[in-house]
Amino acid sequence: LVLVIFLSGFGGASEDSKVAVIDIQKIMTDSLAAKDVQAQIEKKRDLFQKEINSEEEKLAKENKTLSENKGKISNNELEAKAKEFNEKLNKTQAHVQNLRLQLDNGYATAMSEIQKSVTEIVTKYAEEKKLVAVIPTSQLVYFKKDHDITEEVLK
Predict the structure, then answer these.
(1) pLDDT attached to residue 21
(2) CA atoms in the 13 A half-sphere facing the CB of 146
């Protein structure tokens, strides 16, 4: 409702007042900066996955050895080895969770920086073109395509 009032001229907007729209989602996925972030995240994800796979292999071997030794070692020794294995397993699971958290935080931080840059670029563009407002396309039901500045901002 507020947007409709604003666009209809409330508040003394003159006929030459210009409003533009922008597809923020497209910018956040198609910009060079966003693509670079995605590539970096994928690279780190691959490195983390290799590390995780290596740890999983070690744990699987250790679990197999533990199972094979069930009848060959005393119950006390078996319990101690099982406890040690479970501690390693828990430590590995915590490490994996930490790696995922690092990846998620890195992505969120990078995308936040891109969002700040987009805001600065859009503000500068709006000032240069003497726009009164730039509205995300996600907030609109209809708009004329000639009001869309997405491609210009992506340049």
Answers:
(1) 93
(2) 1
